[in-house]
């Protein structure tokens, strides 16, 4: 049955059509927000997937180029692999929804969002987020929803709910908050050094808006929602846990996990698993789920140790950061390098500087952004966790971690006018045991400073964890969580920032939401930790950005010319600019507003190129003196090239103070001569004189 529902959301109408399309999906909704249209669907398999110990959820966000009236590039002229924005949007939708599915559910679930039209005033990402929650909630798929998501921008200190694409791209805040009816369940933010109090205010303004969306979804569910289907539970039998505890006591399990060495702990767990596998050799059903059972036993042990005994696996205090180390310049010849170590997490970051012509080109639905000048990329090889696996390129996790560190530093980067370079930072994970993205932020900041990038402030990041009990008041926030505390805890709350304020947040949880006191405590803890990291560790390695770029980095000098003269510098079919490049070996970039960037490693050649450009773009006046090359000899005089593509004529009478019969008696092709400009002759050509050049010139 086709039904349509509408609500007013941030001054615009959100319309949801149910039953109009995709009747064979478990749940489907066609959403329109303004003129932005997104089709959201949710489907589930009939049976659980065999042999998996996790919930196989897949979230897709498809950017159709017809949505903005464009034909995709490339030979195929069709959409290819997901863009970085699509991957990041999928992750933002996945993170808050995954914990709301049953923990013992193993049926495959796919949530698909197809962007069909884009109104620049209504960002399709927020429509897809609402549509995903709506499609699952009205379906027969088990789900503890509804949930809702809101985005917040900020201009001149004023919050803007679900901002337009332009405000999102240019404002001081990019905040996405997901909520259930009771609690916040996900936070993602990029910010321009926003104070903690202001950020918390923005988070809970989003939470309030989410409540109106949840009420709207609940109304739709009452009208068209399906009963949730039964499913085969993959929970571990209680009698199996009882048998495990008889063989491995809680005290023995605690002793196995209570160590600050990841490899030792993993060895201990392997020995326990082998011991249990031998004991259950005749029980195939139990052997099939033994790995998951041991995992849950570890989880219960670690959570009890932390929450009840205030003991962390590596013996640290609740607010204590692992041992830290920082250094710069460990890699020779690169433009900038730094390494940051926190416990068993170690990141080496390398920065490369290049001309602005090498910025990354973006082909997506956001027509405000077509290039990206600062690129941060993150790599996570298998050896960093002691595993063997063939590298298949970056996955969604690597792209997400790289984007978070990139977002963390965007607020402190210099403008193109201040620093006319394209910048690429690559974080190589040498060792991983918790929060490599925050280590990447610290390493990248130091590496950029070492490369001579004039950052406005130092940036650091830290991750806080959480273990909760049976009530909202029974919880413990942990500073600087390691891998085990992340796996078995309830939260990974990453915050980056400067001394002044927050630049990025990414919050993942495994429970059904956080209370406001937990959010406030985590943000406060993160501030204390990052200031300590910056003041006591990073600033000891490098206190401020270097004044000059590396010897091995290209040097860039920028000058401004009249935009009307750009054609003169470029020349017909690029002849003039290519001639300058061939003669000097530099790279030249010219923007539409007349900003000319000359890039090279030889200062003399760069100055020569700049001088040529200045000559070409100068309106000629009598008395100007040039040095040029004789490029043509005629009976009546010689032509002198004083800049690529620019020539003037020296009449035979103006070559020498003495009378000459033939030009060749004084000049030959290739001679370097000084000339003074006499203006233009009757034919409009520039006229020069050699004999009238002042003696002091």
UniProtKB/TrEMBL annotation:
Subcellular location per the Swiss-Prot or TrEMBL entry: Cytoplasm
Residues given in the record as Mg(2+) binding sites: 486, 492
The keyword Cytoplasm belongs to this UniProt entry's keyword annotation: yes
CDD domains: KH-I_PNPase, RNase_PH_PNPase_1, RNase_PH_PNPase_2, S1_PNPase
Reaction catalysed by this enzyme: RNA(n+1) + phosphate = RNA(n) + a ribonucleoside 5'-diphosphate
Residue intervals of the S1 motif domain: 623-691
First-tier enzyme category under EC: transferase
UniProt cross-references to Gene3D superfamilies, sorted A to Z: GHMP Kinase, N-terminal domain (3.30.230.70), K Homology domain, type 1 (3.30.1370.10), Nucleic acid-binding proteins (2.40.50.140)
Cited SMART domains: KH (SM00322), S1 (SM00316)
GO MF annotation list: 3'-5'-RNA exonuclease activity; magnesium ion binding; polyribonucleotide nucleotidyltransferase activity; RNA binding; transcription coregulator activity
Keywords: Cytoplasm, Magnesium, Metal-binding, Nucleotidyltransferase, RNA-binding, Transferase
Cofactor(s) needed by this chain: Mg(2+)
Ranges of residues in domain KIX: 223-302
GO terms under cellular component: cytosol
Transmembrane segments: none
EC number: 2.7.7.8
HAMAP family for this protein: PNPase
Family statement drawn from the similarity comment of this UniProt entry: Belongs to the polyribonucleotide nucleotidyltransferase family.
Task of the protein: Involved in mRNA degradation. Catalyzes the phosphorolysis of single-stranded polyribonucleotides processively in the 3'- to 5'-direction.
The protein's name in its UniProt record: Polyribonucleotide nucleotidyltransferase
Protein's organism: Roseburia intestinalis L1-82
Gene for this chain: pnp
């Amino acid at each position: 049955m086709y039904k349509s529902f509408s609500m007013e959301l941030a001054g615009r109408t959100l319309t949801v059509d149910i039953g109009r399309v995709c009747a064979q999906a478990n749940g489907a909704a066609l959403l329109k927000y303004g003129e932005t249209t997104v089709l959201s669907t949710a489907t589930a398999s009939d049976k659980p997937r065999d042999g998996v110990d996790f919930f196989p959820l897949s979230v897709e966000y498809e950017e159709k180029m017809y949505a903005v009236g464009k034909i995709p590039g490339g030979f195929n002229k069709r959409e290819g692999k997901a863009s970085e924005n699509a991957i990041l949007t999928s992750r933002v939708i996945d993170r808050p929804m995954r914990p709301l599915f049953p923990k013992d559910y193993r049926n495959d679930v796919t949530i698909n969002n197809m962007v069909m039209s884009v109104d620049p005033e209504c960002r399709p990402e927020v429509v897809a987020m609402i549509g995903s929650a709506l499609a699952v909630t009205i379906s027969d798929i088990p789900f503890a929803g509804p949930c809702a998501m809101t985005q917040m921008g900020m201009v001149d200190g004023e919050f803007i709910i679900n901002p337009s694409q332009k405000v999102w791209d240019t404002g001081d805040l990019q905040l996405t908050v997901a909520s259930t009816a009771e609690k916040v369940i996900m936070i993602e933010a990029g910010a321009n050094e926003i104070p903690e109090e202001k950020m918390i205010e923005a988070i809970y303004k989003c939470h309030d808006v989410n409540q109106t969306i949840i009420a709207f979804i609940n109304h739709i569910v009452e009208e068209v929602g399906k009963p949730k289907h039964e499913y085969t539970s993959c929970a571990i039998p209680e009698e199996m846990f009882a048998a495990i505890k008889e063989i491995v006591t809680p005290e023995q399990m605690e002793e196995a996990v209570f160590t600050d060495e990841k490899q030792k702990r993993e060895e201990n767990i392997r020995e326990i698993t082998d011991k249990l596998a031998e004991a259950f050799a005749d029980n195939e059903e139990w052997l099939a789920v033994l790995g998951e059972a041991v995992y849950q036993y570890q989880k219960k042990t670690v959570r009890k140790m932390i929450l009840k005994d205030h003991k962390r696996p590596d013996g640290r205090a609740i607010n204590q950061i692992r041992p830290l180390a920082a250094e710069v310049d460990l890699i020779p010849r690169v433009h900038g390098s730094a390494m940051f170590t926190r416990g068993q997490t170690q990141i080496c970051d390398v920065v490369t500087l290049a001309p602005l012509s090498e910025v990354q080109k973006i082909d997506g639905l956001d027509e405000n952004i077509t290039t990206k000048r600062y690129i941060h990329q993150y790599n996570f090889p298998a050896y960093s966790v002691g595993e063997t696996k063939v590298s298949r390129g970056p996955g969604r996790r690597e792209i997400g971690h790289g984007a978070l560190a990139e977002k963390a530093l965007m607020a402190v980067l210099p403008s193109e006018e201040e620093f006319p370079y394209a910048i690429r930072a690559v974080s190589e994970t040498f060792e991983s045991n918790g929060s490599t993205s925050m280590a990447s932020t610290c390493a990248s900041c130091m590496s950029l400073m070492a490369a001579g990038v004039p950052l406005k402030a130092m940036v650091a990041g830290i991750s806080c964890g959480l273990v909760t009990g049976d009530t909202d008041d029974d919880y413990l926030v942990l500073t600087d969580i390691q891998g085990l505390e992340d796996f078995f805890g309830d939260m990974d709350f990453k915050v980056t920032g400067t001394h002044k304020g927050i630049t990025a947040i990414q919050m993942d949880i495994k429970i059904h939401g956080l209370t406001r006191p937990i959010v406030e405590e985590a943000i406060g803890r993160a501030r204390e930790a990052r200031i300590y990291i910056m003041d006591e560790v990073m600033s000891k390695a490098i206190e401020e950005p270097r004044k000059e770029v590396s010897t091995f980095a290209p040097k860039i000098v920028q000058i401004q010319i009249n935009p009307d003269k750009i054609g003169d510098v470029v020349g017909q079919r690029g002849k003039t600019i290519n001639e300058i490049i061939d003669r000097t070996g530099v790279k030249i970039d010219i923007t539409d507003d007349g900003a000319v960037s000359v890039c090279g490693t030889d200062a003399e050649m760069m100055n020569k190129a700049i001088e040529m450009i200045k000559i070409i773009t100068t309106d000629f006046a009598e008395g100007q003196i040039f040095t040029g090359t004789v490029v043509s000899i005629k009976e009546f005089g010689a032509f002198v090239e004083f800049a690529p593509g620019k020539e003037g004529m020296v009449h035979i009478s103006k070559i020498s103070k003495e009378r000459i019969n033939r030009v060749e008696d004084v000049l030959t092709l290739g001679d370097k001569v000084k000339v003074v400009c006499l203006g233009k002759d009757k034919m409009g050509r520039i006229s020069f004189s050699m004999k009238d050049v002042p003696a002091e010139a």
